[in-house]
Structures are given as C-alpha cells and as structure tokens.
Design brief:
The protein is mainly beta and about 1750 residues long. It has 22 helices and 108 strands.
Length: about 1750
C-alpha cells in the first residue's frame, strides 16, 4: 500500500491533472448516457424503442453502427439519414368549434369536439372557452325537514312567500320555485309504529312519511305560497333524518320535480338534524332492505314509495348523481348539526353551507349570500376518462378554490386550458399492454351547472413500426440465419453477429481478434466472438472501439479540457467533428469570421487566418488580434514617454530644454495632422505659454527609433486681450452657484412653494397603492411580494423612492438586535438592474451567455465589496426581469448573494447606493435608481419612476422562516425621495402572513457533517416527517464558507421531490481534489461550505435543521498514509502506541449493511479492530471485526435499526485508542404482511375490513393498499381487482359499500414503508353467509368509505369524522349524546321523563376486576395480581393515580446483572417515583427497590442467579397513591462452572432467554357449555418449547381454578375446554414452557352468552360465532362469546408488555377440506367515544 502511494506521489503534476480530467469526463459521459432513456433501454426492436419514451427514435439504415434507439438529434448527428429515422408523433385537431355568441343568454362552451392521439408520456393542451351570462334561468327547489322539531321553522317559511319571490326576481327574471318535505323511513326504529302514532305522531301533525314532492317547480309565486300554507308538520323517533332519500329522489326524478335543461339548478336542504346514510340503520343491518337502486320511485301524488324497500344512498352516490344532473346543493342547517354538513359539503365540487337560525327566519338572507358565492364559482370535471389518460384544467384568468373549482366572472368568456396527458405506466405495466378500452375513449369535459359539454376523442398511440410489418425472413443479408427487419438482422437461435454469420459453438479461434504485437485478444478490452471483437461497455456507454478494441473514446485530443472541444465525438482514436468545425480536437472553425478586421479584410492584409486566428507577419505589443495597429493598447503611455523630447525638439521648451541630443526621434512638423488619425493624437499644454500642442505617431509605437513623430506647427493658445475676463467669469459662476444653492435649500424646506415657482413643475406624490395585504403561506408560490407603488399628479420628471422593510413588527421590540452577534456571517441578497436588455438565454445556467455575464457580474462586484471586512465573493447569481418597472422593465435584473458579518450591513448599503448613483460597479454598468439589499431580518432598497411612469412594483422579501408565528406581520415603509420633487403619500403598507399547519416537515438529519476528499461525493441525508401524507418539495443550494465553489467542491442546486410515503432523500455534492498550490503551501485552513434548504412547497415546511455545514477533510501524505489535516491538533499516543483513527463516518448501504470508514492515524498500523452493536445494548455484546484497510462493511444487520460503532488501530505495540462512537441506522426494508384480516359484516353488500400492523414493520409504515375482487367457488379471481390506497397508516380500517350481493370476494392488504410494498395478507369471504352487526351510530364513521361500484374518482373516497351528535337544548326529539348516553347492544330503551324526552341509556362503568392466583411450586408460593383495563381510567383508583407503565425493557449487562427500563405512565398529576419488585419465578424472597427520582426510568439489578427465571413488577406513585403494576418474566442464560452451577464462567457469553408470550387467544364455541381455545407459537421461543401451561378460572371467583398442561411444540395449538357455565365470565391464561422456565402469559376473558336474551356481559367487547358445515349432512351450532385480552409483546429482542382490547370487528374465514369455519367478532356498541376511536384504530 505504501509503495503504491509513493509512486502516485511521484507522478508529475500534468499527469495527475490529465488523470483527474479523464475521470471527470468519464463521469460526465456516463451521466449523459444514464440520462438518455432511449440508449439506456437497449431496445432490440423499433416498436420497443419508440415505446420507451416520447422522445425516442429508431434508425433503420443498414450501415448505421451507433445505437439505433436514441434521440432524433443524436441519430442525425451520428450519420443516420432523415429518411431512415422512425419517429412517431402525436396529433390533435378540432372537429367542431362553433364560436360563442355572448348575445345568447344561455351557457355555452367552445370548441365542442376535439380529436387527439398521444404517445405514452406525451402531454397536449388546448384552450376552451366557457360563457355564463350575467342573468341565467334559475330553478330553486327547497327541501325541508318536517320532523316535529322544525314546526316553528315551517311557520316562518309559510309567511316568507313574498320575500322569496322578491329574492328570486332580484336574481333573474326567469325563475321557478318548488318545495319538498322529508322525515324518515316509516319503519322501526326510525318511526313509532304504534297505530295511533302512525295516524298522528304529534298533536295537529300529519302521518309519518319519507319524502313528498309537494310543489313542482313553478313560476307562479302565489300558487307556491297558497300550497305551502296548507302543509302540517310530521314526526319520527330517532335523531338523524332520512334526508339522503329525499335528495336522491329530487335529483333522479327530473320530470316530476320540473328541472329545466338550460337553467341553474339549486337545491336548498334545510334541517337541524344529522342524516342517515347507507347501512347505518337497524333494519338495514338485519338484512331487511336492499341497497338503493338510484331510480325514481315517486307515485302520482309525489310520495316516495320505496322507503321501506331499499336502503339510504351513500355519500359517494349523492356526489355522483348531483354532479351528473347539474344540481348544486345549499345546506341551510342550524348550529347543532353544522359540523356534520360542513364536512359533508366539502365533498361536492360546488356547494354552499349556511347557519340557519332556530326558527329559519334568516333563510332568505342565507340564500342570497350562498347564491352570490355560487355565481362566482365554476367546476370543470372530466367524465369517462380512460385509465391510460389523465386530465387537468387550469386558467390564467381565474383563481382556483380549495375544492378545485374556479372563481369566475359572469358575463365574460372564460379562458381555460385543458391538458391531456398519456401515462407511461398504469399499475406497473406499460399503457400499450392495457386493453383497448383503457387506452382510448371519449372524454366528456363538462363545466358544472352547464348542460353543454366538450367531447374529446383521445387515444394512446401504440402503433407498430411500418418497417416491422414487412420483414425479410431468412434474408441473405443475414446469411440465411436471421430475419432482416428495420435495417438490422434479428438472428435465429444459435447465431449471432451483425449478419448472423457466427455460431459461437463452432467458432473458438481467437487469433483473428489479436492485434499484431499484442498477446491478449481484443487488447484485453473485449470478447472475441466469431473472429470479431465485441468491446466491453462501461456504465451503459461504449468505452472502447476499433477492430481490436484498441481505441479509448476518452483519449481523443481535448480543447480547454473538453473532449473534441465538445464539438464532436471520439471514434477510433480521432475526433469526428460536427459541421463547421475541424482540426485534431475540433478546435478550429471552418469559417474565417473571427479573422475579419475592421475594414472587412482578412487579418488587415498583414497575416494569414489559421484555425480561426490571425497569424500576423509582424506581431508586437500594439498589434490586435486581426493584425491591426491599435493605438488604444498602451498608446497614452507612449505619448507621455516622448512628451519631453517632442517639446524640446519642436519648440525648444520643456524639461529637456537645451539638451535635446539624447532624444532619437524623427520629428516632422506639419500644418495639420491627418484626419483619420486625429482621434488618436497626443495633446499636452506647454507650461511656458499655456498653449496646447498636438502630435501623433506614424507606424508601430514599439519601434521608436524608426517611428516618425508628426507635430502640428500651430499651437492652440488662449487670446491674450481677454485674460482679464477669466477672474470675472469665475466670480460670476460662484455667485450664480450660491444663489442656486439658496434656492434649493428654500425649496427643500418648503415644498409647498414648489408649485408657485415658475421653474418647477406642479407638486406630485408617491406612495403605496394599498395599506395592507393578507397572505396565506400555504398558497404562496414565492418568497417575495410585488407591492405596487403609484405616483399621482404631474408625471413629468424623474423621482426615486428609498424604502425599507422590517420583519416581525407584531412582536414587542422587534427592532432590537442586542442579542445578535455582530460577527455572525449572514447572507445578504443584492439586486441590481443592468443596462443590458434581457434575453431568454440568461435563465439557462448552462448557456454561454449566462455563464459569461455571471462571471462578469461576480468579478466586478467582488472587486467592490471585497474591501468590506469579512465580505465574501458573490455567488448564486441569477438573472430575471421585473414587471411593472417603468421604461426599463425589459432590462436585466441580477440577483446575487453576499456572505458577510452582520455588522457590515450599513457599509454594504452605503457602498451599493454610491455605485448605483455612479451607474457602474467598475466595468459593470447598472441603471440608476434601483437596488435591493436584504439581510436576515430587514431589507433596504430604491425604486425609480421615470418620466410619464405612474406605477412601479417594489419587490418585497417576505422572510419566510420555520419559527415564524402562526400570524406574523411585516411593515414596508417609504423613507424619502432622494431624487425628484414628489412628496410621500401613503408611506406604510402592512403585510400579514398566516401560517397554516404544515403537511410535512423537511430537515437535514443533523446540522454538521464531515467528509474526506477521498469520498469524492458528500452525501447529505434529508428527512421528511409526514403529518398529512402527500407530495412535498424543497429546494437545496450550496454556498461558500471557507471552502470555495469550483476549487473545493462543485456548486449544487436542485429540488427534492418527496412522493407520498417517501421520508428520506439525499443531497450529493461532488468534492474536488486539492489544488497544487494548496498542496505546496500546506494549506491547513478548515474548508467548510453550507447547504441550505429553501422554498418548501405543497404545504411543506423547513424543520429543525434548515442548514447543514459540511467540513472537507484535506489529506496529506505522512509516512505513507493520508491523515486528516486542518481539523485541529492531533493527539499523539505515547511510546509508539497508535492514536485513534481520524474522521470516522458511517453510511447505511442497505437494510442489512453499513459501510464504516475512517482515516488512518499517524504511524504505521498493521490493521484495525471494529466494534459494533445495537444502540441500547451493552458494549460488551459488541461484534468485533479485524480489517486491514481503513474501511469495513458491516453485514447481516437488522433492518431500520440504530447501531453504534467505533474503531481502533493496532501495531506491534498493541491496540491504540478507540475513536469516538459513531451512530448509524440501517435503511428500511419492506414490511412483513399485515396481521389477521377482520371483517365486520354490516349488510350483504357492506362490510367493514380492519387489520393489524405488520409484525415486522422494518421501518415507518406510510400507507396500506387494500385490494378486493370477485372470485369463483375455486377461489380463482373473475374480473379485475380493485385497489384502494389508505395513506394514513393509523386508519387500519375501511368501509366498503356497494358490493355484489351473495358473491364471494377476495380481500388482500399489504403495507408500505420507505423501502416499498411488503407481502399481502389475504382472506376470502361471502358476506351473505355471515351474521350482521347491529350499529345505529348516527355519525359519519372515522374510516375511509369506499364505493365498490364507483368510478376512478371514488376509489379512494375518504370521509372522516370523530364527532357524535348532540341533541339541541329544548328539542322535542330523541337524543344521542357523546359522553354519557350510548346504544346498548344495538337496542334502545325508552324512559319517560318530565319533559317527555326519549333517551338512550347504557351502563358505562367499566370496572377493573382483580383476581388473585395462589399457586404452590416447590416449597414457596407466588402471588400475582392481574388487571384487565377495558377503557378510560381505572375505577379502583382515584383521579391522579398513575396508569400502568407503558413499556418494560430488559437489557443484560452480564451473566448476573440486568438493566430494567420502562416508560413513564400517563398521569393527571406529577409522578413522584417508582417501585421495582422482583423474585424468582418459582418462588423465593421478594426484593423491592424504591426510586424517588421521577426522571429515572431504569435501574440496574445485580447478583441475579444465572439460568434462573425472574418475574419483575414496576409501578409508579403520585401524591394520590400507587398505580397498577407492569410485569415481565426474564432469564439470563450463560455458561456456568459444572462444579458450581450458580457461578458463571468468567468471560463467557450471556443472552436473555425464556419464551415470549403465545400468539393471540382465539375462542370458538362448540356448545353452550364448551369451547375450543387455540393460540399460535410464541414469536420468540428462545429455545425448544416443551409445552404450555393453561389456567382457567371464573373471573369473579368461585370454584377451583383448572390447571391444564399441553405437551408439544406446534405452530398452532388447540384445546377443547368442557364443563363451562353460560353467562359466566372466565379468565384463561396460557404460558409457554422451555427448559429455561415459563414465559409470560397471554390472557383472555371470555363469556358464553345464551341466545334467549340473557344479560349482555359488561366485559363483552366482542362476539364470536362458529358455523360448521359438513357435507353431505349439515350440523350447525351458534353460540355467542364475549372476549377481551391482555397481550404481552416483544420488540427488537426486548420484552414489552402492554394492555390491548381486541375490539376491531373481524370475521376470519378458513377453509379446511370440506369444513368451513367462520369466526365473527362483533362489538356491542356499548362504548364511549374514546373507546370507539381506539377500536377503529386497533
């Protein structure tokens, strides 16, 4: 290793530079190839090529030797003719376009029909015009709740007929109005079915009904009022009403309701109650009602007659139907039910909601407000879109709302852009492999509320290349061993080569592939096949070529470091230049344009043009590039050098007067200098007579002795007779200047006088246009705001306005910066307006124009600002234009960043304003009156009003910060008018920015990193914390600190786009090698640069670390090894022992591997020892590796696990010091399959599916995918599977509606983390064979709702709610409360009260029951307390007592010592301490440890016995007393001395043992007095399972506990337990037993309920039903069981015990030969809101 390094060190500098340059070019070429998808695909055929990407083309010419599948421009460059290129283009044209006629008072859309064909990945767009007249026909239908609680509302509505008429007449002259009423289904339990109540539910009330169309839409307002006064109220029982039935009938019964075709359809839905929806009624769940058929069922009287025959519609159904029929809903609801409808109305594209007063007295005003909002909205939707296509609608005229609709202006033609994109892949397969119906179709683009629509006939181009349709089979061009297709041979099996003339089996001779003088075939760079060399590729590019692979495509001549001057390609060792270039390195242009002189000649006829340059015959210092004499090249210095000699020889004056002999000039006196040279003559003043004389040179000034000096004879002298006027003129000028100064001072002090002065224009003012702006941060697309400033009055003349902005002015003392360090380096943004015009090339960083201007700007600005102490060179320079900036708005504005101390702000502003006033920064010309200087908290700037300019924009930075308040305020102030006479009008504008909740937080993993130059690339991880899953984006950018861009690293800038579910990205910055000057000077300065995260988008925000500092470690050779320099003084180990390795760093390579690297210490190490262990484990358990080089790859690690590692070097003296501990986490791996699927069968077409989290998450679960589809009796899928993405991983439950009745479905669920999708868990079930679960909770469930019959728009239809309806005070209807009143097992109990209020009650006190088990084992006893906490707080303990500790973790520190850790429990009051109790599992002395420090969550226990099981109990204490205990069983296994079994062998390994708890207990009823108990093998048996200990006892005591021992070790164990009693709760405990002892228990509490109406157990959270079918005879037993369990868990090798209530409804179906067993878990409904939420999330 040392020898090789020394040889490299002796390489000359140029060789090293060439080597690095070749490596860089290799990287660049490889990157180009990787970015070219066409070449990367290696497509074999023409059709395959053109389907890779829309840019790909195929060359069919037979002689073409380059890759045939490439970009079209590349194929042309490489010699493929235009006729030989196959390139498919999309097409689009208009089929029908009747222009909009704004005089027609109806809605119109244009065009009406379009045709388009798109390639995969291609996007096309066209413009669409939409017109809505100012006044359009309106149909208003009022749908009112007629339950008894709305009686006062009806009375008010009857008296409002005239008000409604006036309201409609104000809207339009063409209107109709109608009325309908609804209550609920006339069936139990919605309606009181007693005969007297069916006749008259209340006094003076009509009979119950579901929906009636009372008044058809009419324009006769008197008729409407008369009919409305005849109506009477009705009534029902339960709180939610059947309004969904009424809405659906109103939509689908178009003729009976009277909707007109070209009118705006408004549906007013008025109620004070919640709503029933599909599958939430008791009758529905009992299987009585079928799902809604979405048809009209009104009889001749307008009454809905199918209310008792079919179910309510679902929410997705209503959204779909109202959209199809152009109906806009307006929800007029009271405060009590507002929250439900507020969530509901968001799912409609256009809808409105308003708060109705208790008596509906404000309904007219509510309608007026809602209609005004609706008039300004328009939603555009696309129906019948094929799967392979995607549509999008945008508008430059109108702004989009949160729901996706547009804010429009009626009466004008709206301009919209329709974008149609063809996807490349759908569901993991290319779109061309999809069925034809998924690739083409007619898309209906339809604005909501418009009957007209645009039809787009769209399809994806999946054509086959024409040349493939005419193949030449067994072509002679292919030696009859292949087919000639599209210019190439497709060889038959067993043949290869360009002409299929080679059979590898018969051609083994390599001699034809050996170049003369070589030994290896193909120069060692390829493989010899059939006598021809096939060169090896490298990084998807052909690195070598030639008959013997003897040429390297990177070894052609270079110009300025570019291969073939970047104007050609390298082929067979020579550059093949592009057109217009020639030379060995393509460095010479073929034209002579660069040699043309100022007269239009070539090289001034004084030379020749070679390779684009003039080779002059006589070159000198004063010869230009075109061989012309340039007098501007130092000519003034020559004038000065010969001045004295000319003055002496021509006039006899000057410094050499009387001594002209030393001058060797040839002076020629002339009357007048030649005209063409007059501009280049020398002029000086003779001091003796104050006259000016002129002379010039003729010839080359560099050869003075041979040059002729022509002197003009006549001097220019001032007239002698007027010399006395000079002092007088000077006096008068001074006097005039004094008068003007006094006048100016007077005008400045009293500007009111300006208008009176005849020399001044009339007065004018400048100021901001507005005084306040309100911005929402989530809707902001940039970090600045263009704030308009206006000028009024006379616009003659020029004014400049100086302004400033302060951030966070809403905070007290915002101007105080006392706590800020003035030496801190901060970035200063600097903006200037250049005098040059803007071009589009300036926004392209790679363009030469942009690069040249950027270099010019940075060099000139650096020359100015470098004089400010601590100021660094400008960087991040960009160019733009500024709209609304007067007559110079087409000039270029440059934005750049200066890094300087905070104290330099004043100096930077001063220097900037000075040079802007001079209109130049050195050679950089700038426009006057414009600049901006931005610091971290404020900004200063200036804007200019040119003559006749009335408005300019001030570009205000908004200082968006992560730590901003939720509402912050900025203040912009116009300070003064330094140039001009304008006064300041509106001086201040306030800007308020409202920060909303972030959807994700993006941050660096840590604030600082260190990388060696040996790494070549610094890889900096960026993490995203997902709050609301979706797409996020952030910009990253590097900037200089002490490291310099281009010298130490490569400037990097870009965007990181996180797709839904992604949590980790990486920023890669290329590091450069040390320059020769740094190496020679031993530059030891610490090199650092920064990376900033900027401009978050899509609701993202910058997190904890918005900036990362990267330190570059510069190595230098010391004793043959490169240690780290510039990082501080290194510590030396004494007496030859090695110091610690330097700069250790770790990077995760995969989910199972970490690469650990470091720099060698000073000295000569023989090797290194690497120790690594799981973070949290003792270091004594570390794995040790011995490696010889400074780097190691740690393998076979756990996925997504934190590891710690360190390294030491060793030599003959022994081990050196260890490095610091480095932390690194392995990458994620795909998760395991989710837990068992559970089904809650709601009806034969509705089911609730839930699942458990995967046992091995291997990362952070980000989403689940639920797939379901029909299967036949053989469990074979029939038809496509439907997929739904659940992006909230906490919502492990979906409600699937509209399934096909009596059809089996297969359901599959898989989980996703950052590594991808894991395997699926599947189950098959037929809902028709399952029992139903009663549930009548009148809320929208807090789970995703999926419409199985809906289109693509409804696949992921999510609707969440955690609210429960409360009854309004004073209401006359039944009540459902959220905290104290609940449904009991789906039944209602009625109680009479003083106010005749019907209530639903249930026993809600869930008590903890404690049962002691006394077991004798050996000679000692063991007593344990078991707790089963159902929900909420433990009723045995008062409030303030701590809960059970939430986690118990054991870590072995040695064979006899153990660390016990736990997590702090929840407690209403402060925890004061803990108690830890432990004893041997088989009995013995009880040890207690008291921990008074509440912050101490762990304790070390010593002197344990090896290979003995211990039980530990931990509990917490507050001022209210001790809480319940958390317990766990553990064993430390180790080797012991055979002579002393209690003494471990010193240095022997030790591990934690005893099995984990068995899998969840599953109970199956066999009869009323017996059940079957089954469980799975423990996940971590930690040894051979000998058997299981089962204990069965009555929960409340009574009878002797039964202890059962089951031998064997099976994946699943089943036990039949007979002789049980009905309606008695039992507690079962199961423990696994090994040779090391008994593990923790799995507990379950079970109640077998009778089917004759016995009491429902308060412990019953679930019901299981077993159905057994045997063929040919059938035997069925149904028994209900209540079940809850206490589950211990293991995680990452550490025991963790937690309590869990298995409450999610589930149905498990298992097919075993001819027997079908289904276990149904059903929640009782007797739950608090908190418990119900836990059940949904379980």
């Amino acid at each position: 290793m040392r020898v090789r390094r020394k040889r490299m060190a002796t390489l000359p500098g140029p060789c090293v530079g060439l080597l690095l340059l070749a490596l860089l070019c290799t990287t660049i070429l490889g990157q180009r190839s990787r970015n070219n998808r066409c070449v990367q695909s290696r497509a074999k055929s023409c059709t395959e090529c053109i389907r890779v990407a829309k840019e790909c083309s195929f060359c069919t010419e037979e002689s073409f030797e380059e890759p045939r599948c490439d970009l079209r421009e590349n194929l042309l460059r490489y010699g493929c003719g235009e006729a030989g290129i196959v390139y498919t283009r999309g097409e689009m044209h208009t089929q029908q376009n009747i222009s909009i006629n704004t005089f027609l008072q109806r809605t119109q859309v244009a065009p009406q029909a379009m045709f388009m064909r798109l390639r995969a990945g291609e996007e096309m767009s066209f413009n669409m015009d939409v017109f809505q007249p100012l006044e359009s026909p309106v149909d208003l239908y009022i749908l009112m709740d007629f339950s008894y609680s709305m009686s006062d509302d009806l009375d008010n509505l009857k008296s409002m007929g005239q008000n409604l008429a006036e309201f409609l007449q104000a809207l339009t002259s063409n209107y109709t109005i109608g009325f309908g009423k609804f209550v609920d289904k006339v069936s139990s339990p919605q309606t009181d079915m007693r005969p007297e109540k069916l006749r008259e539910p209340w006094n003076n009330a009509d009979s119950p009904f579901s929906f009636k169309n009372v008044i058809r839409l009419t324009n006769n307002i008197n008729y409407f009022s008369q009919e409305l006064r005849k109506e009477r109220i009705s009534g029902n029982l339960d709180a939610p009403e059947g309004g969904f039935d009424a809405i659906l009938q109103t939509a689908v019964c178009k003729d009976k309701i009277g909707w007109r075709k070209d009118s705006t359809h408004l549906l007013v839905f008025s109620t004070e109650s919640a709503f029933h929806y599909e599958a939430d009624g008791t009758n529905v769940l009992a299987g009585i009602l079928a799902r809604n058929d979405e048809e009209c069922h009104l009889d001749t009287h307008g009454t809905y007659v199918y209310d008792t025959k079919q179910d309510y519609p679902s929410v997705p159904t209503l959204v779909r139907l109202l959209g199809q029929h152009n109906i806009i809903p307006i929800f007029a609801v009271t405060n009590h039910s507002y929250s439900y409808y507020e969530k509901l109305h968001k799912y409609f594209p256009i809808s409105e909601i308003g708060v109705l007063q208790e008596d509906s007295s404000n309904i007219v005003e509510l309608l007026r407000t809602a209609f005004e909002r609706i008039r300004s909205k328009m939603d555009i939707r696309a129906d019948f879109v094929p799967k392979a296509l995607k549509t999008e609608f945008i508008s430059s005229m109108y702004e989009k709302t949160e729901s996706g609709s547009f804010h429009i202006t009626r009466g004008e033609v709206g301009k919209f852009q329709v974008r149609v994109k063809a996807l490349e892949h759908v569901g993991g397969q290319h779109v061309c492999t999809l069925p034809e119906k998924d690739r083409q179709g007619i898309i209906h683009v339809k604005p909501t509320s418009l009957s007209d629509s645009l039809q787009v006939q769209a399809s994806v181009v999946c054509d086959v290349c024409p040349c493939e349709q005419q193949p030449d089979f067994r072509s002679p061009k292919c030696s009859f061993h292949g087919d000639f297709i599209c210019g190439q041979c497709i060889c038959h099996a067993g043949w290869r080569g360009d002409t299929c003339d080679c059979s590898p089996a018969s051609s083994l001779n390599n001699e034809a592939c050996i170049r003369p003088g070589d030994v290896e075939p193909c120069s060692g760079r390829g493989e010899c096949l059939c006598g021809k060399c096939q060169c090896y590729p490298e990084d998807l590019m052909q690195r070598f070529d030639g008959d013997f692979c003897q040429y390297d495509v990177l070894q052609c001549p270079r110009t300025s470091g570019f291969l073939c001057n970047d104007r050609g390609r390298c082929s067979k060792g020579a550059c093949v230049c592009e057109s217009g270039w020639e030379g060995p390195g393509c460095e010479c242009p073929t034209s002579n344009d660069t040699c043309i002189d100022s007269r239009g000649g070539i090289c001034n006829n004084q030379g020749r043009c070679e390779c684009g340059r003039c080779i002059c015959d006589k070159a000198s210092l004063y010869t230009s590039s075109t061989c012309e004499i340039s007098y501007s090249l130092g000519f003034q210095a020559v004038c000065e050098s010969i001045r004295d000699c000319v003055q002496c020889q021509a006039w006899g004056t000057g410094n050499r007067k009387g001594n002209c002999s030393t001058c060797h000039l040839h002076v020629q006196m002339v009357e007048e200098l030649k005209k063409e040279e007059a501009n280049e003559h020398c002029s000086f003043q003779d001091e003796e007579d104050d006259c000016t004389y002129h002379y010039t040179l003729e010839g080359d000034p560099s050869v003075l002795p041979n040059a002729t000096v022509q002197v003009q004879k006549k001097k220019e002298c001032p007239p002698g007779s007027f010399l006395w006027l000079i002092p007088l003129l000077i006096f008068l000028i001074l006097l005039l200047g004094l008068l003007l100064l006094l006048c100016w001072r007077f005008c400045a002090c009293c500007k009111a006088c300006l208008a009176l002065l005849p020399c001044c224009a009339r007065g004018r003012t400048v100021g901001f246009k507005e005084d306040h702006y309100m911005l929402r941060q989530s809707l902001m697309s940039s970090d600045h705001l263009d704030t308009p400033m206006v000028r009024s009055g006379s616009l003659k003349g020029r004014d400049t306005v100086r302004w400033k902005i302060n951030n966070n002015v809403h905070k007290q003392g915002f101007t105080s910066h006392a706590a800020l360090n003035p030496k801190d380096l901060i970035p200063y943004g600097l903006s200037l307006r250049l005098t040059r015009l803007f071009t589009q090339n300036l926004v392209k960083p790679e363009s030469r124009e942009c690069e040249q201007l950027r270099k010019e700007v940075e060099e000139n600005l650096d020359d100015i600002y470098k004089h400010i102490p601590g100021c660094y060179k400008p960087q991040q320079t960009k160019f733009r234009v500024q709209p609304n900036s007067g007559k110079r708005q087409d000039h270029t504005i440059v934005d750049t960043v200066l890094t300087a101390p905070r104290s330099a702000k004043t100096e930077i502003i001063k220097v900037t304003e000075k040079h802007v006033s001079h209109e130049a920064f050195n050679d950089l010309k700038v426009s006057p009156g414009y600049y901006t200087v931005t610091s971290d908290q404020d900004a200063h700037g200036m804007v200019e009003f040119q003559e006749a300019v009335e408005l300019v924009d001030v570009r205000v930075p908004l200082f968006i910060r992560e730590d901003d308040d939720d509402e912050k305020q900025l203040q912009v102030e116009a300070i003064d008018v330094p140039t001009g006479i304008a006064q300041i009008g509106r001086r201040i504008v306030n800007i308020t920015i409202i920060k909303e909740q972030a959807s994700s937080l993006i941050t660096f993993l840590q604030p600082a990193y260190s990388h060696s130059r040996f790494d070549k690339v610094a890889k900096i991880p960026v993490l995203r914390e997902i709050i609301d899953n979706g797409r996020s984006q952030v910009t990253y950018r590097t900037r200089d600190l002490t490291a310099k861009e281009g010298r130490d690293y490569v400037f990097t800038e870009g965007d990181l786009v996180f797709q839904p579910g992604e949590t980790r990205k990486e920023v890669q910055v290329s590091l450069l090698e040390l320059t020769e000057i740094d190496t020679l000077l031993h530059n030891r300065q610490v090199k650092q640069f920064a990376i900033d995260l900027l401009h978050p988008k899509y609701g993202a925000k910058i997190g904890r670390y918005p900036q990362a500092t990267v330190t570059i470690a510069d190595p230098e050779v010391v004793d043959g090894v490169p240690p780290l320099t510039g990082m501080g003084q290194l510590t030396q180990s004494p007496k030859g022992r090695l110091s610690a390795p330097l700069n250790p760093s770790a990077q995760a390579l995969s989910s199972k591997e970490i690469h650990f690297s470091w720099f060698p210490p000073t000295g000569k190490p023989l090797g290194y020892k690497v120790k690594y262990w799981v973070q949290g484990d003792p270091e004594s358990e570390a794995n040790v590796m011995d490696v010889k080089s400074p780097g190691a790859t740690l393998k076979n690690l756990y996925a997504f696990c934190d590891y710690e590692m360190q390294v030491c070097a060793y030599n003959a003296m022994g081990e050196g010091a260890y490095s610091d501990i480095i932390h690194c986490r392995t990458l994620e791996s795909v998760p395991s399959e989710p837990g068992r699927l559970a089904f809650n069968v709601v009806s034969s077409t509705v089911t609730q599916l839930s699942w458990a989290e995967p046992a091995e998450t291997n990362g952070v679960i980000t989403a689940y995918e639920v797939s379901y589809g029909l299967v036949n009796d053989e469990n074979v899928p029939i038809g496509p599977m439907k997929k739904v993405l659940v992006e909230d991983p906490k919502k492990r439950m979906v409600l699937i509606e509209n399934l096909r009745e009596s059809q089996p479905y297969r359901y599959m669920v898989k989980a996703r983390n950052g590594a991808g999708w894991g395997p699926e868990r599947e189950a098959t079930i037929n809902l028709a064979t399952q029992p139903k679960r009663p549930m009548s909770i009148p809320i929208i469930p807090d789970v995703p709702i999926i419409d199985a019959e809906g289109g693509e728009d409804y696949d992921s239809y999510l609707m969440y709610s955690t609210d429960v309806l409360r009854t309004p005070a004073g209401s006359k209807r039944p009540s459902v409360s959220d905290d104290s009143e609940h449904l009991l097992n789906g039944r209602m109990d009625y109680f009479s009260g003083s106010s005749s209020t019907l209530t639903r009650t249930a026993n809600t006190s869930y008590h903890q029951h404690v049962q002691q088990e006394h077991r004798v084992m050996g000679s000692s006893s063991l007593t344990r307390d078991y707790s089963t906490m159902m929900s909420g707080h433990d009723s045995r303990f008062p409030l303030g007592v701590p809960d059970i500790p939430t986690r118990l973790v054991f870590s072995a520190l040695g064979p006899t010592s153990l660390k016990v850790s736990w997590q702090e429990p929840h407690c209403e009051k402060e925890v004061q301490g803990y108690s830890v109790q432990y004893q041997l599992l088989n009995g013995g002395e009880v040890h207690r440890l008291t921990i008074p420090n509440p912050s101490q969550n762990s304790v070390v226990v010593e002197n344990l016995l090896p290979n003995h099981s211990y039980i530990f109990k931990v509990k917490a204490q507050s001022e209210e007393g001790w809480g319940p205990e958390r317990e766990g069983v553990i064993t430390i296994e180790s080797q012991v001395d055979p002579q002393s079994p209690l003494s471990p062998v010193p240095g022997s390994p030790f591990t934690l043992s005893t099995p984990s708890a068995p899998g969840p207990l599953v109970f199956t009823a066999l009869s009323p007095d017996s059940l079957q108990l089954s469980w799975e093998r423990p996940r971590k048996p930690n040894g051979a399972i000998l058997g299981y200990m089962i204990t069965c006892e009555m929960l409340h005591g009574g009878g002797e506990p039964r202890n059962i021992y089951v031998e064997g070790d099976n994946p699943e164990t089943t036990l039949t337990v007979p002789h049980l009693s009905e309606n008695v709760p039992y507690k079962f405990k199961v423990q696994a037993k090994t040779t090391q002892g008994v593990g923790p228990e799995r507990e379950g509490i079970i109640t077998i309920e009778s089917q004759d109406g016995g009491t429902f157990s308060q412990f019953g959270g679930q019901q299981y039903t077993r159905e057994v079918y045997n063929f040919p005879m059938e035997y069925t037993t149904k028994t209900s069981i209540s079940h809850s369990s206490l589950d211990p868990h293991f995680s990452d090798g550490m025991l963790m015990t937690s309590q869990r209530v298995e409450s999610a409804s589930s149905t498990l179906t298992k097919q075993v030969t001819k027997e079908f067993i289904s276990r149904t878990v059903t929640s009782s409904g007797t739950l608090t809101k908190q418990v119900e939420r836990q059940f949904y999330e379980a």
